[in-house]
Amino acid sequence: MKNAPFFFILLAVSPVFLFAQQPIKGTVQDAETGAGIPAVTIAIPGTGKQTITDDAGAFELSSSGVKAGTKIIALCVGYQKDSFLIENMTKPVRFSLRPLQTQINEVVVSGTMKAVSRMQSPVPVEVYTPRFFRKNPTPSLFAAMENVNGVRPQLNCSVCNTGDIHINGMEGPYTMVLIDGMPIVSGLSTVYGLNGIPNTLIDRVEIVKGPASTLYGSEAVGGLINVITKNPATAPALSVDVNGTSYGELNADAGVRGRVGKASVLLSGNYFHFQQRLDRNADNFTDMTLQKRFTLFNKWQLDRTDRSQTSLALRYIWENRFGGELQWKPEFRGGDSIYGEQISTRRFEMLGSHSILAPEKIKFAWSYTVHDQASAYGTTIFDARQHIAFGQTTWDKKIGTLHDALFGVALRYTWYDDNTPITTRPNQPGQTAPAITWLPGIFVQDQIDFSQKHTLLTGMRYDYNSVHGHIFTPRINYQWKPNTNHTMRFTIGNGYRVANVFSEDHAALTGAREVVIAEALRPERSWNTNLNYTGQFVPQKSKVAFVGLDATLFYTRFSNRIVADYLSDPQKVIFDNLNGFGISRGFSLNSDANFTNGLKMMAGITVLDVYTQEPNLTGNTVKTPQLHASPFSGTFSISFPLYRNLLSIDYTGNVYGPMPLPVVPNDFRPANSPWFSIQNIQATWNIRKGLECYGGAKNLLNFVPKDPILRPFDPFDKQANDPAGNPNGYTFDPSYNYAPIQGIRFFIGLRYTSWK
Fold first, then answer.
1. What pTM was computed for the model?
2. What domains does the chain contain, in order, with CATH numbers?
3. Beta strands 263-274 and 250-260, pairing class
4. pLDDT (tens digit, 9 = 90+) per residue, 124-182?
5. What is the distance between the alpha carbons of residues 170 and 221, in angstroms, rounded to a whole number?
6. d(Cα 291, Cα 195) in Å, to the nearest integer?
7. Helices (H) and strands (E) in the chain, counts
């Protein structure tokens, strides 16, 4: 028994020895989807110990020599670095990695109607995911665009707060808004339909700047915004987002995924409520409209065993909004005693598609929309109804080893009726003649991959408009990729647009101005060229994990451009084709950087020169700057996680240089807006997996535009002809607007997402 002491010592320490030999086990999951992440590097710094996760995101690592309190890290391309302190080696290590917010390798479809990574697309496409929009929560897609570089949600009316989206300084009607590739947010709904897209149903938003008429036809003159909705098969099982502001705004989004037989189903809804009559600038008019809005979205997807796919989506929008004098009541609607603008909107949409994936890639897509609007703008009653039916068949065909072609035929039917002189039957009071337009088209696109570095994309489209006749739109794109991290693109293309001024230009209906259409308006045409560079940098042995750059030089020339003249006569809005040309040119730069400590920074600038040029009555050329087009604008976003991603801070904002505004003769207000910036801050607390609480402040600088309404005390111009009280002959006009009339306000919200 002389070895007994040694035996007992060995017995006493054996549990520690055996424990130390147990491997360190754990899993790595995506923080947003909850799915396991394969091929993640797991390492213990300074020891040389490392391994990678398997297909399910699980790993094992030797614990030899590892002590309690040792730091273990997880590294994966496309995700933020994460670390964990080992305190009890018997408990599994669980990493939850957050995706890096880069746009470089996102899959896009809008540029070529084919799914391809953004770096491989011959057409420059910008991509924004829900992660981007959650940095500054908003009740609609329209408001969410305020922090996208070169894209500006413009409020066109200081009374009813309606607006449209400007791309590179071009007015809203030049921007086509698609949902899942279907052109359903257009025409009459350009003003109101943008507010009815819930953020919870958005998978990503793709933006193409410049004409896209070769693939998408009319309206895609200045650019397009394609809202890609979530796939019912992969969407969260449940998502809820509720928030409110100190102004009294309440917004609620909810979505649920399920299965009915062999179909995956997504049901999403949004409700927005604001009913407080606020007047912070003391002009006796509501600063923001009273709104009630309800949106319901239902999407079905059936994946068949024969490699075909069928989808169907339905969307219904109901909205009531009012803006005007604080004393207004419904009984004053349409009268001339108390001024108010009240709009009721009802909209229904259906869109679907059927794809055959083998042996040929053929897709048929269709949509049908009904838009009803009952409006009163002071004493002006505007009631309108619009039907749009659209169908399109595409054939994606590889030809040989070089050519990747796309053939398509499309048909668009538009039925429009309102109570304005545009559709009124001559000499038949109360009778209308609805405007009916047929627009069949055919297009072809060929992508020629000469090598891995050189790609040429050519395309052309022919449309026949039943009112305006034959329209031909070609384009050419060239892409040079010196390597996988850098690409150069050159684009030249043609666009066209057939306008409906009453459904697109809301300012034509508001206030006391008379609408004058000088002639039969001809379709607008444009030629655009741009040079784009996109690059990504992954520094080695640096605190910077990723840097992305996207720079574009662009130039667009318009002919037959339809302009709304607010300056020649303060009591009229005169619509006419430009007897000259319009120019939109400039430069934009987007940059984003991700750091190893979790810091993320995004910044963008856009420099613009937008104007029209035409001869005056004396034959001299007159250059007129585009109203509401800022020569300089910028956006920024800074995000930083704290306390192991339990708390994160988002600081976002934009800045605008002086922009021309619609002033009247002898106007006491400046002809250009001041420099201004809207800045926001948000803190998000990750309570537990899938549950977040967030809050912060909007418009930290408390910027509010001055005097947005001219003569608010006389909205019906009853004293406008009084030379003593109105020596300058001013009339009521709410079109002098360039920013929301909302000062600093605080918000708080709760967001829950479950993937199971």
1. 0.81
2. 22-97 (2.60.40.1120), 107-227 (2.170.130.10), 228-711+726-751 (2.40.170.20)
3. antiparallel
4. 888 888 888 899 988 888 888 888 999 988 877 788 887 778 888 887 777 888 888 88
5. 9
6. 11
7. 6, 42
